[in-house]
Amino acid sequence: MQPLDDRQTAARQWFESLRDSICAEFEAIEREAGSDASFAYTPWDRTDPSGEPGGGGVRGVMKGRVFEKVGVNVSTVGGSFEGDFARTIHGAAEDPRFFATGISLVAHMANPHVPAVHMNTRYLVTTKAWFGGGADLNPPIPYDADTAEFHAALKEACDAHDPAHYPRFKQWADDYFYIPHRKVHRGVGGIFYDHLEGDWDANFAFTRDVGRAFLDAFPRIVRRRMETSFTDTDKARQLEWRGRYAEFNLVYDRGTLFGLKTGGNIDAILMSLPPQATWD
Questions:
Q1: Judging by DSSP bridges, how do beta strands 189-196 and 67-80 pair with one another?
Q2: Residue 60 and residue 101: Cα distance in Å, rounded?
Q3: Is 118 a catalytic residue?
């Protein structure tokens, strides 16, 4: 992989620092619940199809009392897209060389009253350079207060940069996090954005604020619900919704496809899958 330029380095360092902050907060929640669970980190290296080193990343996974399974991954990879896949990537049809760095998080919770969650932000360079990402809440048992708080935090982050961001990115999430064969949304939404290019500094600042908004809002929701009592019926509902989550990630998720097509670490790519799920 080619040496990183200043922008690539700054993006990589931010995603890694955000990982550190999120993991520390999640471990603090485990301590509050009387658990000594901590993240286990596994570095991995990627070889580009050309045979040259293609970067790599670190997979972080914790299994605890509150977080039944949470993965927080960072990666920085580069090289060339293979074959027809290049034509599906913004700016890569003319030149298959690429760079990508980002953070990806999925948390599946032990208590069905605590929502599962996904967050991802990334920076990619082909013949174009852009940011993308977002976050969405996936509660088996939705609470209006939690949904409102999560969306309010993301809206505040959006509004600080462009009042048009939130309605546009909320609708994008509603359209994207949908399971056509089930005719249901994956959860209660959030925001999703991609191909955010132009003013690099402004777009990087927005992407950082999305990460901070997630770190501010989600732990509060976890702490509010993690001691709620639940029934076998509640747990069964959670396991059914986890099945829907798995279906989306295996059939429709762009990040899963990108990781597989670029030779990413399989365990890191599939860390989004829940530890248990049910299908009728």
A1: unpaired
A2: 16
A3: yes
CATH superfamily entry for domain 6-272: Coproporphyrinogen III oxidase, aerobic (3.40.1500.10)
Say whether pLDDT at 74 is over 90: yes
Q: Can you give the residue ranges of every domain in the chain?
A: 6-272
Beta-ladder partners of 108 = 69
Q: Which two tokens stand for residue 276?
A: 């248990």
pTM of the model: 0.94
Single out the catalytic residue among 108, 113, 118, 165. 118
The pLDDT tens digits for 135-187 are: 999 999 999 999 999 999 999 999 999 999 999 999 999 999 999 999 999 99
Residue with tokens 């599962």: 116
| Helix ranges, the chain (H) | 6-32, 144-159, 165-176, 200-225, 232-251, 254-261, 266-269
pLDDT at 125 over 90: yes
> What is the distance, to the nearest Å, from the Cα of residue 122 to the centroid of all Cα atoms in its chain?
9
Task: Kindly report the backbone phi and psi dihedral angles of residue 178, in degrees, each rounded to the nearest multiple of 5, phi listed first.
Answer: -130, 140
